[in-house]
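Quick one, T. Sequence first:
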Amino acid sequence: MLEVTGKIKRAMVMAAGKGTRMQPLTDTMPKPLVPFMGRPLIDHVLDRLSEAGIEEVIVNSHHFADMLEAHVLKRIHPRVILSDERAELLDTGGGAKKALPLLGDDPVITFNSDSVWVEGDGNSAGQNIRNLIDAFDPARMDALLMIADAATTIGYVGRGDFHMDAEGRLARRGEAAMAPCMFAGVQIIKPALFAGGPDGAFSTNLLWDQLIASGRLFGHRMRGTWMHVGTPEDLIKAETFVRAL
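Structure tokens:
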């Protein structure tokens, strides 16, 4: 069991990917700066983290790094710290491992820069993140994933990601035709897990599989509608949905 000592006050936004599936929009800008409802995707992410009380956010950069860094450094709340991946794209796990000196020892939030959603009825901005923080129990969990219902997700969802039992433990879809749970791009995780990952690029999926085997990967259902914005077509669907509310 990994020991933790403090409250969750830091996050890492995964913003270094090339955004290949979002072409041609990403031919001239990094995916986190692609506009959604008139504002860059990453601004929606940083706003939610600020509303949830997160004080510092590490943002990694690779594709159009200068453009992304110039934009996020304009933020005052939360305070943004850069993790430069210009030399090598490291995927989610490798990127977090490189940023370990910035993340500290206590649990952190990782947030995909293209993860957007509409909060549930009565929820204020950032409420789903606050709910996730409240649900995180480090004695039982090494990682807690924000989970969306595949049936109500806007955009491409494939066959779903996980099954979740009554206690919140997650299991892969496996041989099932469908799984009802989607990873909504946000998790709370203990940084020490990344230290044990391989050198170079690797996916957080590697760590999740280890935690599933030990029964320490959990999910927490978000309230509201999550929107998958992996392609320009998905982006149009998401904006259409929001405008219709």
